[in-house]
Design brief:
With about 55 residues, the chain is mostly helical. The protein is about 75% helix and about 0% strand.
């Protein structure tokens, strides 16, 4: 059987990506984006429900 070759990213690259991701997730900008997204989702759902209830 032929052994499959698996490519792995160097540890320094994975550490960098993890560090940058962690910094972004804990940042105020990320929190602002999540809150804006959630606000828009709730607003859209409320609008859809309101319009749907007025159709009947």
């Amino acid at each position: 059987m032929e052994k499959k070759r698996i490519l792995h990213a160097p540890k320094i690259i994975t550490n960098f990506i993890v560090h940058q991701s962690t910094n972004f997730i804990t940042s105020k900008e990320f929190q602002k984006r999540v809150m804006d997204f959630l606000f828009n989702v709730v607003d859209d759902v409320v609008t859809m429900v309101y319009k749907n209830s007025n159709k009947n």
